[in-house]
């Protein structure tokens, strides 16, 4: 297996970190043992965790006001794969990459697959893009894609999704994520019901092209780029559409795509209950679709989501297998660092949720012991599982401290030399 | 037909108002004619409008901090019917009353029906109450009703709903509205999925008791009294449950029960599209479930909701018949005045929505003429249809100005004498 | 005076519209007379209304996802002035233009002033831009401008604002609007208090450069581009800073820059009371800083803001002179049409607010007649003052229907020929 | 010193808990030592922490829909003091009680002071109540208190506040907290500026009655009971008023009184910077003024608030002394348990904030190392300081596990016998 960072650097890093880590691990192990928990089981569990990387996440993001590029940004899909390989090498938690077409469309699909395979990276669900007009595109999406009143725009959008399925198939992917920004900026701009009818009609065309072992994930979002009415704005619409389309259609939950004050973990519980939870775009937010690093704003919410996932797993067993992906915009950090750190934060919530004593919780609930049932969750959340995560990495060949090791490796500085910035790429100026 | 206000007072009022009204009506008629609209058609349409009254709305409401009672509040269901009769006499827009049990439970159902019938008042859907414990109640709802882990509490809640159906049947009602405040105040308090499973199980029991020509309306609400997770919190959950239960189950939309920034008219469009729009609780709000007078905070939103209803009517014809009810809390106004005024505001939105030129709108949309499609709605909304509403009342036997006529009648002062306030009723002190 | 649209087109348009307009005007005049209002006074008042145009508003806007350009977009500040001249010619409500530097920085300031003067266009407050890095800029704003920890970045940002004042002075402007996107995306990124201390220090430098008859407007915004903590996030911070800086510093209210559910008209009342209301950026929004056309989403809110402005004018007289500007992003409409229409919507709210019977309102309030005090505002808002606005335009030499006349003029089609699109300008691709 | 719970029960409890606690404490101590932190310093710091108890918090709360009473609720201020004494005995973190008048108005002030003193309980700021009408009150607050248009209502409200100061003085309190629900439910109901002018005028009267060593805390709240415009709705208004009134007037921050998405820790930073941070009402919320247990919904936010407080302490030293109080409504838990648990949660955030390495954080910020500056906070927050809190309690004579010990004591069951419920107290029925 190829590695991007020299494995000697990882070993050297871990050699230094080992003494402290083992001491912390033993201390935590003792504390857990006194609560009747086996740290080794948790570490083994942590090692099973995986969350996919978004190919677009390794570049610096921005807002409509500006983009402030960072050094050494990847300039094509192969360089993006390199960066993803770094992240997976240093976390062992991100073995899959999610591509976005046409941004990542390769001229030689087989070569791309082989390139990733050398890093032992696979491909998660592929993403279509009908929220932008590409150069030379025949029909505009200015007034909608899958929902456009123009039959040509709709057909083009369906055809693009079908092409994405074909590309994904060649890459070994098993899913298609469909997010459309379609909607209206003003009351009256669209017939709201007509738009959803056209969406369903278009999606039936996409659905028909799905291989038997594929799923299509419907991603909803409250607003942006549409600012009055987004066609797929909430989980209710997503759920109704997935139900209409059939068993291969499921719902995707992005943590930043909800109205203020929404209880997202309850949406997770509902979709799990009705068999339509397809997957996640993990990130965090305070205001809107802020696309901040996972767990950076409200880590307890992330834990509560994983608490629902643990509950669903306990109920539904192997049948319950939602797809996990990061979806973040890194505007002021090194994207590789943010993605490593975010993968670890999601993994943290996963391990913490395994600490919940579900039998005790059920009993507290049965007894209407509200305070203790709440504390059962808080107790798990409060546990600092950092030594478990570090030990899991170490045992999987990754460094105890991914960011520290990454910085020591000098990877970014080297890429800054190898990948000079494109001129004029600095600012968008769209306001 | 009995009337509460002496009809001479109405006639006298209208005699005075007539000259100005006729002049305004003629002026508006001319303006509409120049836009190709026939004012007489609109007036006839306005006369067909009806919205039900909530029996609990004729008393003064309050908050958890305090209730400031008003003079002459009704002390029993018969006095509530009297007040509702005033509202309908003076607006001719509120021929039905919606009762709430056990608050309004009569000892003699037939006598109540006859009492209302003398005013030509009928009964809209009945409302069950499992959000409070009643004196002498066997099992508490402190930890839930239809979703309680206690089988006894659940059975009691189901039985109460079945009893409401029986009472409603005897009163000539055709629907049951089920709102439960059930939910959790803290993460962990409830298994979110388990709570909904119990809800569905309980509701199957209620559903089984519905007569063939009845409907049950599921009312969702984001929060309050549950402050972390409400079991029926959003339209998605309401829709999924109504689908599970069967064709007699529909969704009820209360305008104050949504997350901030929610596009309510889109929810209306979605429920209409999927055949599950059962009815409305009209009111207005700026923050939460504020239960303010309809149209008082965001009248354009009320119009946009009626614009969707007009679209659904145009598509689905007679099959589309959602139930309209006011649901407001009148804390600082005379409840009769607020209800009259609110009925008129809802009727106003209904008439304004009929002014939308749907053919022109469809053409603007087809042409992606966003500005003119938005203006097509604004043009209708901007039209001051007050003379149409006043003339419709006049032709139906009601006064041009309901509030003015009501004040002239001295009804409230008379009730203040007849209905002395209960001692100690002033403050709740629940904080 | 130069005109962009041939005045014959306007005259021809008005000749056709006149008969209907006069009939509508007479009808409305009669209705108002019956309410004791003189339509001629209102029309004269409407003619005095003015709102400034944002130079950046005449181009097509976009989001971080995409920009879909329209035909004939202006390519420099002179072409922007041409488009603004069209808007003012056809509405007579937009005699001032607000420039944005360095976007609009002219090589020859005097030539620009003369160019605008030929259209009788003046210059409103100038806007600085420290939220983007310009090509060749010495110090980056990636980590802040006026608040940056880098002394060089701060000094550069101060110097840019001082240069804006100098440019504005040469153009005849009397104000500087300072909006900074500075802030943090993550807890910990900034010392919140330190950032505001640096802001104040920088602003003292800017303030010191203000001519005696100038004002500086501090514009706050809840979020975007900073997604965790924006330094100038709310009116409280804006007010505290304006107080610290001195009498020439005032607060600017943009309608889309507040937390959900905020009562904006109350902020207007507060700033007016404490003497710090500097001006407005008018637009509308449903979710965030959506920058939609004024009055398109919540026209009653716009009216309520003008109701406060009317109250402040009645109290403070001539001393109360806030600056009005449109600030919108036109993503799916012709920007000229949206700006014309928006100027008319703001003017509409201004005229409606003059219809409020303030003496009657004060008496209702004094009597705690809550219902009638609310109706006093609704009555004014419901009045369709369109004939007044059209007649005011006509008397000022503008067309009854600006959009209709503009379309008839063929201006956009002509510009589409004269101003070919820049290649590759279609999409931002910042996600 | 009197104790409510037999001290033998506490000793017995701690004897059982000691072995595990010492092991956990040693394990954590080792982990902290490896990070360069001294656990003993943190434990000593924890012992200094204090937060006041709200007298109204020891009874069961409710909503406008219902109140579900619990067993053994206190029936007068002496029984409330008993319950508060339990909380302080078992946490050693709540030595002060905050009274609410007239609810807690004693017939014999000296006796009440002596009664509390026997428990070594003191009195924090006193609270006035002008949001309810009391039986026999001369003038109603239905249309406002300090802001009422009625001069009699205003004078009565001022006089009540002055009386509260006198009562507080006799009790040894040093502050008055003024929260008024005054405001409007409808646009037009109030002249917004007039209401605040009257508020300031009334408050000048209250301010004049403050002893030299007192402070008055202005508490703002976005909405409820006023549902359109609350006179003191946001920190900006609170700050402007405190500035107008003088140095003894400060602002009080209740965590549930803000618009959705508000960054509360930034408000804390602003008020600290401008010298106007008076104190806190701690609680937690997901939607509105939910008054849930502190730290139960968003514990990271609580930590971030204490991070600002730690920053302010580091800057301003002893001069910075805001007042801390819990303000919660306990609807489904034992109020004593919730208050003990909440005191511990606030203490937890206090101790965690002391773990932040401020020098390292400042350096990361200086270097624009955004990721590590964010991690510096997360690292502190993630640390499970439970053993520190337990050891601090133990050393102060309280039990390791307050809730466990309380349950073992049988206090509630005993009170249920001694304090039979008032008949008819079950439901409010205000909707």
TrEMBL record, chains A, B, C, D:
GO molecular function, one term: metal ion binding
InterPro entries assigned: L-rhamnose_isomerase, L_rhamnose_iso, Xyl_isomerase-like_sf, Xyl_isomerase-like_TIM-brl
Domain Xylose isomerase-like TIM barrel: 100-291
The UniProt record lists the keyword rRNA processing: no
Top-level taxon of origin: Bacteria
Keywords: Isomerase, Manganese, Metal-binding
PANTHER family per the UniProt record, alphabetical: L-RHAMNOSE ISOMERASE
NCBIfam families, per the entry: L_rham_iso_rhiz
Protein name: L-rhamnose catabolism isomerase
Organism: Massilia glaciei
Gene, per the UniProt record: rhaI
